[in-house]
Give the backbone structure.
Amino acid sequence: MSDFFQTGVITTLHQLGHPSLERLEAELASFSKIRPVALVLPALYSEFEGPAMPGIVRELSKVKYLNEIVLALDSASEQQLRSVREFMSPIPTEVRIIHNKGKRIGEIYETLTRNGLDVGPQGKGRSAWLSYGYVLARAKSDVIALHDCDVITYSRELLARLCYPVANPALDYVFCKGYYSRVSNKMNGRVTRLLVTPLVRALQQLLGQHGFLLFLDSFRYPLAGEFCMTTDLARVNRIPSDWGLEVGSLAEVFRNYSPNRVCQVDIAATYDHKHQVLSADDAGKGLMKMTVDICKSLFRTLASDGVVFSDGLFKSLIVSYLRQAEDTLMKYEADATINGLAFDRHEEARAVEAFTKAISMAALAYMENPMGSPLIPNWSRVKAAIPDIFEMLIAAVEADAR
Amino acid sequence: MMDFLEMIFQPLRELFLQLGGFLPNLLAMLLILVLGLLLAKALELLLVKTLTALKFDSWSDRMSFTTLMRKGDLWARPSVIVGGIVFWLLAVVTLMVSLGALRLEAIDLMVTRFFGYMPRLFSAMFIFFIGYLLTGFVSRAVLIAAANSGFHYAKFLAEAVSALLTVLILAMVMEQLQIAPGIVLAAFSIVFGGIVAALAIAFGVGGIEAAKRVIERESAEKRADEPEDEIEHI
């Protein structure tokens, strides 16, 4: 059973006792009449051939309160699109597929580019962003929930708990992030445990109290890919197109809304998904690419909030981070020991070394180019640049569905 | 025997003679067709490049022409679509000109009719273009005006105005193209007249009470404005 301690400046919604899923779903069904919920699923075709997607579809076919499901499908041919459509057919909710590799959606991206709107390269960020646009264009839902499609331990309780805080009009949250413990026979989630939290605390140590760092440190799993938000937030939020997606999105939430309207919810007792390799020697792939992108996103967010980064600060940050990470590592070792979990201290120490290198690389990249790759513009701006973009998007998805 | 052979060869000789006279025309037709198509392709490429340089695609995106194309399931760049339209128009013109080189009476008549129809085609395209712009402008103006004055069904009103104008413009285009003009005119009169009659009845019947209140209020205000008679009767 979870504790009930409230962390930081946002609200934490714990899983206390054994809350009834039937009650949650019944309440969600009634909330959805006034706040219809859309589910966005960014997926690669390869995930339909993996172990997670059949389970997700099986669970979603039992869900009654969803208004629509938008599947943003990447790396799929026309034939694969047809098989995905067939795959999703057991789900009773209306499913719309955004075929990112199709010529129509390709033309939508080109339309955006030629009008000076940089939507970044292919990836989860761009797919999620376009899906929000599609939900906004249809104007049939008030709440958007998003989760990854590689969750092996998926259950519909995860979705219900994720949607509940935003869908419930009495709670009045605009953004809700999921959290869970990434535990199998060992502790997973290295990037959150050994990079983000120690880095944020090292920055706090150097910069003192800072609103965004406090906000970020309040999240138990800031890199969780599962979240739920209002469509108003989806309209005004800009998001990064790279691995800085989660941190960048939280920065935008912090910028646009009070922390009082932000919460995190315990969505699963266990959670397992596709694991990334560390690839410590290659900063262009795996966890190294992810960590460099996250660090850059963090530095740029802080810089945009007035923090002045210098060579000296970065040098101190690396040393401070290393100390924080080593202390954290010892805490997790103790935590693993009492719970009888396997803990490879050497592997964890190697991860910390790799992350230290990643911070240096991110710092260098930041000093060379503080602006970096811009965030994907928010939909309000896109609509101002191309007034009919929503009609075009609807036409593309409808034509692909035929 | 010679007469018999002559009877056989005479038609063949005539056929060869006719073919000899027709072959240069056929070659001229093929030459015109090939050169015309090559020229059309070159003009298409030049037009696409020019339109791209002039940022026609972005302009089309903002002016809603791209949306119109997308709704018609055309997913190429607007400049490429315009280039394609020009190419096919030139290809048809080339075909007609080349057919004229055959010097066949029936084809000459068809070519003459085709070129006689061209002005109508261009004016229909012009009406459609201007009409589309006007429809978008008027419906947006109605939407903004209605929304600013707090009208609850502003979007519905704007869509209704857009639909009415679209019907009007399509009828004008069809009439210009002389496609069943009698039927188009009758259908347009019935549809447009029906809509106006339906609106008149709906607002007329539904607005009896409102109109009554307005008239009563007007009369009451008028009575209140009239100066009172200061002379009192004993």
